[in-house]
Amino acid sequence: MRIISGETNINDVGIKKRFKNHEPFQSIIELAWNGFDARAKNVTIELQRTELGGMSSLYVLDDGDGIDINDFDSNFNRFDDSLKKDSIEQHGSQGRGRLAFHKLSHQAIWFTKHKNINAKIEIESNSIKAYQAFIDINNQDQHPLLMTNRSGTCVVLNHFHNELPTDNEIIRRLQNEFCCHLALNEQLTLSYNGEIISAPEHDSHSFDRDVDGSSFAVKALRWSEKPAKERSNVYLINSQGKKMYEVPSKFNKKKDFYLSIFVTSDWADTFSNKGDDIFSSAKSNPTSSTWKEVIKFIWSIARDIYDDFLKKKLEETIERYEQEGYFLAIVNTVMKNMQNGSSIISSQL
To answer: pTM, whole model, 2 decimals?
Structure first.
């Protein structure tokens, strides 16, 4: 076994200052995202509470690639700088999410397996810039949940100093945070205490379109609630399911209207977002006539979905008014005024 000690390229005060406005629950969000960023198919969150409702244990397990212990500079030495920053696919673009744990607990331990090498990394919140890594640990020192996995990571949080919301609230917020990711990648699973996190309530619309010899499959999801940190966007997906490009929707400022649109095509396999400049020979780009035609179609169906949304809201409002007796009250008032008017006219005759 080898032991490596290192430090993140920023001091403790600087790290904690970056998380000043983060709430404790964000620690769990960041660890789950790190699992998906590591190409995990399954991310599991397990929280055990005491009889009094406090937290006794918490871990986040994934079956992703694991942590490359031969490249700590890319994994644990960086802060506000990450190898993921140039990837539209990955969430952890600032190299800081792993350290969010200090908002919830005093210690985090990363048990990991990468290319059949077992390792363990420990960080304490009172010296958060420093880490200690144990490389080539014995099987009995590896986390039991990783023993049968070819690769993956299990992050264990210890010594809690803050609380998390109720289980129902945690599930709701996980749905809200990961809704687009889970909807786009139906082969992935996220679970909390054994319950599979599904995409929250939404309407789904599917369309197919052929443009310039390429087929485009369009999936539009209108969310009942606003997704966390998620604007209404259009996402271009290649044939491997990789997100290649995204553009904000024209409907971002529509009240209570939240729409995510996924456009999948092998046309995107050679996509470059640099456009038609002298440095890019890619025919698939944002300025191409093909994409312009596709996005024109997208805005058309988005308008139809929005119009349908407004129609349903109007119908729901009318139905609610009817149930609450508003229309009956208006009719009674009109009738009463008409009767009073008739009485006045009769008295003047």
So the answer is: 0.77
